[in-house]
Design brief:
Elements lengths: L1 E2 L4 E6 L2 H11 L4 E4 L8 E8 L2 E7 L4 E6 L4 E8 L2 E5 L5 E3 L3 E5 L5 E6 L4 E7 L1 H12 L12 E3 L3 H19 L13 H15 L5 H6 L8 H12 L7 H8 L3 H11 L4 H19 L7 H7 L5 H12 L3 H6 L4
Antiparallel strand pairs: 1-2, 2-4, 3-6, 4-5, 5-12, 6-11, 7-10, 7-12, 8-9, 8-11, 10-13
């Protein structure tokens, strides 16, 4: 595995355990079965962070079956070559090809029944809160979680094709071909490109809010004052922020802060902070060894002090208890 800095990692490997480890670290815990044992594994993986999203350029060189369990994030795979047979939850087996994307929900066990040896996909993991908050801002209204994205997306024409072209462009710019240093991570345009990626997905994919988006009048962008408070929470979600402190960071009154968050995030400031913390806890629980750490330790690490409230909020968001996530079987 070769790290090229904070935003880019590459792996070239024939080792199954190393492949599993890197996929678990940057995407999801997994089991992998080799379906063609006589054909050697040849993993080619490039991973880059794009704000709230993780983008992977993925090839394996042999037919595989991959089991992921619940993802805890929205996921879209754009095949560039080959095929992926997949299912989520109790749904039917579906086929992803260069003309049809794989689209997964945060909840529901996920299995790639066959990732063909000639398969080459761009895999996009999207933070659950980020996509849902983006939709709330676009509608200027609260939305029900999780957003029921359709299980596929036509990439051969219209919005789906345009969005897939954007994913390919960002993969190339972020490191798959040019190496680190492209515009996707430049401070002047990176955030806008990353936001466009989420906005484009919400306009291209099928979901219950699609028609409302098509008819919606775009709300004004979040003012810089609200963004300052959001940035502070994302940078240090473990800090014991109060509404008063956040209002001071934003340089607005507490009332203006509350109104701004409701308008642009669909949540109160502290509810927004709680969602960030839950995502960080979930990520740590999914990667940790239950023999070495406890749920309480991880919850405290990210600023939760009332374990009962934390456990209830966690179960409502992820559909299982924190201890179930921590004890989940890992490869």
């Amino acid at each position: 595995m070769s790290p090229h800095g904070a935003d880019l990692v590459t792996l070239r490997s024939s080792d199954l355990d190393e492949t599993r480890h890197v996929l678990a670290r940057y995407f999801y815990t997994n089991f992998i079965d080799l379906l063609e044992p006589r054909v050697p594994l040849a993993t080619h993986l490039t991973v880059t962070r794009l704000g709230p999203s993780t983008l992977g350029d993925v090839r394996f060189g042999t037919d595989l079956r991959l089991w992921f369990g619940e993802l805890g994030a929205y996921h879209v795979s754009v095949p560039l070559a080959g095929q992926v047979l997949w299912r989520q939850g109790g749904g039917d087996v579906r086929l992803a090809t260069p003309s049809n994307a794989l689209v997964c929900q945060p909840v529901g066990d996920t299995r790639l029944e066959r990732f063909t040896g000639d398969g080459h996909v761009l895999a996009l993991k999207i933070d659950r809160q980020a996509l849902e908050s983006q939709l709330a801002r676009m509608l200027d209204a609260q939305v029900r979680s999780p957003v029921a994205l359709g299980p596929g997306m036509d990439l051969s024409r219209g919005r789906g094709r345009t969005w897939a072209d954007l994913v390919r462009l960002l993969a190339t710019d972020a490191g798959a071909a040019t190496g680190p240093g492209g515009l996707a991570h430049h401070p002047l345009v990176g955030a806008q490109l990353q936001e466009t990626l989420l906005r484009g997905l919400l306009l291209a994919a099928d979901h219950p809010y699609r028609e409302l988006l098509d008819d919606a009048v775009p709300p004004a962008p979040a003012p810089q004052s609200i963004r300052r408070a959001m940035d502070a929470m994302h940078a240090h979600p473990e800090w014991p922020f109060t509404v008063s402190q956040l209002a001071e960071i934003a340089d607005v009154s507490q009332r203006s802060l509350q109104r701004g968050f409701q308008r642009h995030a669909g949540l109160s400031p502290l509810a927004y902070l709680s969602q960030i913390r839950l995502a960080r806890v979930h990520e740590d629980l999914s990667r940790s060894d239950p023999a070495l750490v406890t749920v309480t330790e991880i919850a405290y690490r990210w600023g939760f002090v009332h374990m009962g409230r934390f456990a209830g909020a966690y179960r409502r968001r992820y559909g299982q208890s924190p201890s179930q996530t921590l004890r989940a079987i890992r490869p």
